[in-house]
Amino acid sequence: MLKKRIDKHKIISFIGIAKNVGKTTALSSFLKNYKNLGVTTIGIDGDEICSLTGKEKQTIYLPAGTFFTTTDVEVRKRDISVKIVENTDIITPYGNIIIAKTEIPDYAQIYGCGSIADTEKVIFKMISRGAKKVLIDGSFNRVSHTKISAGTILVAGVIEGKDYEYAINETKKMVEFMGFKKSNLRPKKTPCIYKNGKEIGLGIDSILGKEDKVIEKLDNVTTHVVFSGAFTSNTLKKFIKFGFDFKKIKIVLNNCCDCLLSYKEYRLLKELGGKIEVLNKTDICGIAVNSFSFSNYINPKKIFKMFKKEFPSIYVFDVMLKCS
What we know:
Layout: H1 2-7, E1 11-16, H2 23-33, E2 37-41, E3 44-45, E4 60-62, E5 67-71, H3 72-77, E6 82-92, E7 95-102, E8 106-108, E9 110-111, H4 116-128, E10 133-137, E11 151-157, H5 164-178, E12 181-182, E13 192-195, E14 198-201, H6 211-215, E15 222-226, H7 233-241, E16 250-253, H8 263-271, E17 276-278, E18 283-290, H9 300-310, E19 316-318
Parallel strand pairs: 1-10, 1-11, 2-5, 2-10, 11-18, 12-17, 15-16, 16-17, 18-19
Antiparallel strand pairs: 3-9, 4-8, 5-7, 6-7, 13-14, 13-15
């Protein structure tokens, strides 16, 4: 079932619900089971020591023939057998980003580009060079990678200093946000509003900080407000203050990652009758459960069964137990 979901997509992001939930472990397991893959990130992955805990981390194992993004500085510094596929003009504080390919199996550190636009560039460069799929290692509490990925593996587990119920609730939040309905609208320019099926521009670059200008253009035939960027808690508060009719007017975002509301704020929006739709929807291919924690121990089979029970419509698997 998972393989069928994965095979539909060229680009897969691995998104952890928090730091140290086993994202690298989940990604590494896929690298072992597929050939000619590409790997990238927005940050840096494969560090030997975790910057949060100061404890040893698992490095990323790359089979022979794997494309990955690193820097010219890293290649000169480390003794790794790689072929330089392409030098890019993307500059980071760690050096210029290059696309490399492993000649023999090795453990490596993955360097990312630092922006969605540049990450898109290197992804499609890797695909054009022969990568069958590209895996994106997601970053701490962010789903920004879903903007450029068609499929996502959510990685959940026991969070440092938290219990399993917290992990389940955080996963519920992300599943619900990624489950926003896909909008049928195809706006030419955002932000905008829709009245009687017609797109009407707002003449602004962003709704954020200009909520009053949006409210003054709404009337009883307005059906949608389409954002060009984030829907924040401040925007929600101002909409409530200005009398936004959430029951009649839908909020439309580019992607679920543009919803920056807390889960509590989102529940308030729903209580007011509000609905969020997205122009670009991400497919949740599965939930990878990691029952290991640095400081907590919970029976692995117990937490796995709990996630299976909480998410019956999503494929749930445990990389360490190798069960689903």
